[in-house]
Write a structure and sequence with these properties.
Elements: E1 16-17, E2 22-25, H1 32-42, E3 58-59, E4 62-67, E5 70-73, H2 74-83, E6 92-93, E7 108-109, H3 112-122, H4 132-135, H5 158-170, H6 175-182, H7 186-193
Antiparallel strand pairs: 1-2, 3-4, 4-5, 6-7
Length: about 200
């Protein structure tokens, strides 16, 4: 581990477990030798520029290593072992090719803004076809998550949405007039026309 001494006991005060999904905090000092041994057992080390895949149990695509009765995300433990400190919770930027990658050269610490920017650039933001409603429809049944005119806060119906689009396509009316007639904002009319909202029934 170049440039870092891993013999000192780490400060675990700010360590969150399993990607920040739990409020539990790891207690006590990590046995560095044991952590390194588990790392070497579970990570397939390759060339410096390659991904080093985690070969053990995965959770949502991320490796998971259990030490001293606590579960650690493998990439976070990797960052600690090679940098001597824990990354800020939820702000460890991971390999773009694989969530299970544990190559320290592919991991760096950032912030929430940079994380969101990277997500947009990589095309991994959960919107459109990547949204949970598309990727896991069984988890978002219509009766539980009503959409369109079935939603209690909806101000339009599908018939009105289709009328808006027909009127706009035929020309001769403004978005302002459509908004006034239907009692909604011009922004809503614009989004209906562009199909940003009311995409499908």
């Amino acid at each position: 581990m170049p440039g870092h001494s891993l013999t000192a006991a780490p400060d675990l005060e700010d360590v969150s477990v399993i990607q920040g999904k739990s409020d539990r905090r790891a207690r006590g000092d990590i046995d560095i030798l044991k952590a390194l041994r588990r790392y070497s057992e579970k990570v397939r080390v390759g060339a410096p520029s390659e991904c080093w895949p985690f070969t053990g149990r995965l959770r949502d695509g991320y490796g998971c290593i259990r030490l001293h009765g606590h579960n650690y995300v493998a990439s976070r433990l990797t960052f600690f072992l090679f940098n001597g400190h824990w990354p800020t919770p939820m702000c460890l930027h991971k390999c773009k090719q694989s969530r299970s990658c544990c190559n320290p050269a592919h991991l760096y610490e950032g912030d929430h803004k940079k994380n969101a920017q990277d997500r947009d650039v990589d095309g991994t933001t959960a919107r459109g076809e990547r949204h949970g409603r598309r990727t896991k429809p069984e988890a978002t049944p219509p009766e539980k998550y009503p959409r369109g005119e079935r939603h209690g806060m909806s101000k339009l119906t599908w018939a009105q949405v289709e009328w808006i689009r027909v009127c706009h396509a035929s020309g001769g009316v403004t978005q302002k007039w459509l908004a006034e007639v239907l009692g909604v904002s011009r922004t809503t009319i614009c989004q209906v026309i562009s199909q940003e909202i009311w995409k499908d029934k």
